[in-house]
């Protein structure tokens, strides 16, 4: 006997809230008029079967982890009124391959695409605030277009993205936060922004394929363990740059240049 789709919507303070969407379907279309989706609204059978997600134009806000563990999800239609993706929205969505985040979305919370094991490509428009841990443990990620006006690379943003080979930082980035690229073992090419000021603890730790990098002359500090476990053997720094004794591998030659 076929199980029918059960949809429950409540109205609270004039807002229509989806509290239940349960039923097997490859294409899931959330009803028009829904403005908010609760954390546990999407049933387990829906998460296991859903390949395409169509969110209504009326949707303004999501609770955390709404689509967490939707293992079959391949395609997402984002509505224009939705301004943010809160923590863990698509964590563990192992069938996602390509995601293009539209300019209407301004905030990406923690762990939003964490553990999306087949995610290969992500792009962001200008004005999107990408926070911490967003792509942690995405082993297939190879192509990333960051917001062109990003001011930092968040904590553990790409940690253990073992297929990532190249990253170009927007010119506006001033800080690479701790563990940002730790464990990106295939990372070979890194283009740092000219305005970069800080490279935090363990930022590139265990990026074993990284053998060369050019540092900007106004870089202020490289913190402990930033390049530990990399393949760097020779680095040229400006006298303006402060670094810790264990910022680099033990056998890495550090050349400090006055007029860099």
Structural descriptors:
27% strand; 260 residues; single chain; 4-stranded mixed sheet; mainly beta
Report on the architecture of this protein.
This protein has 260 residues and is mostly beta strands. 2% of the residues lie in helices and 27% in strands. The protein has one helix at 44-49; strands at 6-12, 15-22, 27-29, 36-37, 52-54, 61-62, 75-77, 84-85, 98-101, 107-108, 121-124, 129-130, 143-145, 152-153, 166-168, 175-176, 189-191, 198-199, 221-222, 234-238, 242-243, 253-257. The strands form 7 sheets. The protein has a 5-stranded parallel beta sheet with strand order 14-16-18-19-21, with no helix packed on it. Strands 1-2-4-6 form a 4-stranded mixed beta sheet. Strand 1 and strand 2 form a beta hairpin. The radius of gyration is 21 Å and the shape is elongated. It starts with 5 loop residues before the first strand and ends with a strand.
Strand ordering within the main sheet: 14-16-18-19-21
- Along the chain, the helix and strand elements come as EEEEHEEEEEEEEEEEEEEEEEE
Helix content: under 10%
Q: Tell me about the largest β-sheet.
A: 5 strands, parallel
The shape is elongated
Number of strands: 22
- Number of discrete helical segments: 1
Cα-based radius of gyration, to the nearest Å: 21 Å
Low-pLDDT residue spans: none
Distance between the termini: 74 Å
């Amino acid at each position: 006997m076929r199980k029918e789709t059960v949809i429950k919507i409540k109205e609270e303070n004039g807002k229509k809230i989806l509290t239940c969407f349960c039923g097997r379907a490859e294409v899931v279309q959330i009803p028009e008029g829904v403005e908010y989706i609760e954390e546990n609204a999407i049933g387990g059978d829906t998460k296991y079967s859903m390949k395409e997600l169509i969110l209504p134009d009326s949707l303004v806000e999501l609770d955390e982890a709404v689509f967490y563990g939707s293992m079959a999800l391949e395609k997402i239609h984002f509505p224009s009124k939705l301004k943010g993706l809160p923590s863990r929205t698509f964590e563990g969505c192992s069938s996602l391959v390509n995601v293009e985040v539209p300019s209407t979305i301004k905030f990406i919370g923690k762990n939003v695409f964490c553990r999306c094991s087949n995610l290969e490509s992500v792009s962001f428009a200008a004005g999107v605030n990408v926070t911490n841990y967003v792509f942690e443990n995405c082993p297939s990620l190879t192509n990333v277009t960051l917001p062109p006006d990003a001011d930092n690379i968040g904590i553990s943003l790409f940690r253990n993205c073992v297929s990532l080979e190249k990253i170009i930082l927007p010119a506006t980035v001033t800080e690479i936060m701790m563990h940002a690229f730790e464990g990106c073992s295939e990372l070979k090419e890194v283009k740092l922004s000219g305005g970069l000021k800080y490279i935090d603890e363990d930022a590139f730790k265990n990026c074993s394929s990284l053998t060369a990098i050019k540092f900007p002359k106004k870089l202020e500090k490289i913190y402990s363990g930033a390049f530990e476990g990399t393949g760097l053997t020779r680095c040229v720094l400006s006298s303006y740059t402060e670094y810790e004794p264990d910022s680099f591998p033990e056998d890495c030659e550090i050349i400090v240049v006055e007029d860099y």
